[in-house]
From TrEMBL:
One of its GO terms (cellular component) is plasma membrane. This is Ion-translocating oxidoreductase complex subunit B. Residues 32-90 form the 4Fe-4S domain. [4Fe-4S] cluster 3 binds at C126, C146, C149, C152. Its EC number is 7.-.-.-. It comes from Agitococcus lubricus. The lineage of its organism: Bacteria, Pseudomonadati, Pseudomonadota, Gammaproteobacteria, Moraxellales. Part of a membrane-bound complex that couples electron transfer with translocation of ions across the membrane. One of its GO terms (molecular function) is electron transfer activity. It is an enzyme of class 7 (translocase). The complex is composed of six subunits: RnfA, RnfB, RnfC, RnfD, RnfE and RnfG.
Length: 194
């Protein structure tokens, strides 16, 4: 019984020592992240679609911080480009049409299950794992996860994927923003004769 208790104590001390060494190493050798990359990544839409030529939003944020053009994000559109330009202190550019055309209506993928052959090519193309299904079985889209990147449409050999407008619900509908006072139209004041 005493040898079992001694073994438990020794293992506990080794675990504490290993934890202390790992904690010290993590603190001593940590790499400081570039704060501008963090801010740029927060502005990007996080669709991870790759339309900008990078494998995701974080690598594109790193490329922008290193001087790459700010106008390659199709899902973010002009609004995101304007925010990035303000953060970087540069003049906003229009969306580069080489990377795609901005669509103001948010869309999600819809798989016509009666036509789906279960090839899994759409699952492989989806950067956010919003499509579920198995080989030789029908697939479906998790609407709440779909970013509308459109990358699943082209690989489909039977053309059974449609991009449909996102249904408007209480959670997705937004009030239009008010105009700034400097650009708002002035209402003429009527003078009343006394």
């Amino acid at each position: 019984m005493l040898t079992i208790l001694g073994a438990v104590v020794v293992i506990g001390l080794v675990a504490l020592l290993a934890g202390a060494i790992l904690g010290f190493a993590a603190d001593k050798f940590k790499v400081e992240a570039d704060p501008i990359v963090e801010q740029l990544d927060a502005l990007l839409p996080q669709t991870q679609c790759g339309q900008c030529g990078h494998p995701g939003c974080r690598p594109y944020a790193e490329a922008i911080a290193q001087g790459e053009a700010i106008n390659h994000c199709v899902p973010g559109g002009q609004e995101t480009i304007n925010k990035i330009a303000a953060l970087m202190g540069v003049e906003p550019l229009p969306l580069d049409s080489e990377y795609g055309v901005e669509n103001p209506i948010k869309k999600v993928a819809y798989i016509r299950e009666d036509a789906c052959i279960g090839c899994t090519k759409c699952i492989q193309a989806c950067p956010v794992d919003a499509i579920i299904g198995a080989a030789k079985h029908t697939h479906t889209v998790i609407v709440s996860e779909c970013t509308g990147c459109d990358l699943c449409v082209d690989p489909c050999p039977v053309d059974c994927i449609d991009m449909i407008p996102m249904p408007v619900t209480r959670e997705t509908w937004h009030w239009p923003l008010p105009q700034p006072a400097s650009t708002a139209h002035k209402i003429p004041i009527m003078q009343v004769d006394e």
